[in-house]
Amino acid sequence: MNQKQKLMLAKAAMEASKNAYHPVTRTAAGAALMTREGSVYTGCNVQSVISGLGCCAERCAIYNAVAHGAYNYKAIAVYFPTKNGAKPCGACLQLISEFAQVAKTDIRILMVNNEGRIIAESTVNKMLPGAYGPRTAGKKLAAYEKNRD
Question: For position 114, which CATH number holds?
Fold first, then answer.
């Protein structure tokens, strides 16, 4: 993934945050997910006043991609509006890890701050080593190994 793609993904994540529904925390997060083919799917956090009904931006971006038939990702940018940005939560890392197993690859994670700068970069396997997922559970994933987007 080149620098131009990283910056484009960071900007898309920041833009996606503008659509967030955040009545509880008043903090708008965004994510942008890139497929191996270069398509980009975005998501934003969606909160609820009822605990447990909301969804993080990263998972919303993945759900958006899946709804369009895209299962193989190479990177995700996560925008959080603070100086230090934020890492994905454990639930998001688990889901990103599951799709890394689908794609038989590691997925790059870019953490983007309130200025739109990439302040940290890692991979899902470094952030959640040894994660349990569909391949470790012995599931057959051939139907998902090729994007349909």
Answer: 3.40.140.10
